[in-house]
Amino acid sequence: MAAVVWLVAGLLLIAAEVLTSGFVLIMLGVGALVAAGFAELGAGPLLEVIVFAGTSVALTTVARPVLKRQLHTAHVPTNVDALVGDKAIVVSTVDAHGGKIKLRGELWSARAYSETEVLQPGDAVRVITIAGATAVVLGEPL
Fold this sequence. Notes:
Layout: H1 2-20, H2 25-40, H3 45-71, E1 87-95, E2 98-103, E3 106-112, E4 124-131, E5 134-139
Parallel strand pairs: 3-5
Antiparallel strand pairs: 1-2, 1-4, 2-3, 4-5
Helix pairs in contact: 1-2, 2-3
């Protein structure tokens, strides 16, 4: 009977992991499944608890960090977020009210980050942010 209890507990913990994705409940669930195996082989209740605790702690401290590293990759900027920080070239005069730049081979509407800055064609600029369909740029020092 103890093996069935451990088995049900293990399966419930593994199923609950679907809701959390923290890789803790699955480690406890596997620990419970190992304890179910020991219970089926005739181990006593104390040994079952020790096996459950030992397996759970070992998996949580060893396997969980490895799984988290493998499955949770670093955030990669996409779309307009990927353009922030890029260099561009001024195509037509850019000031606080507008202008055009060439960014990654495409023409973009742009405006200067600073109200007083006026950027001339050929100047190098850096994209500070994207506001709608307009790149907000700052002149690069020579």
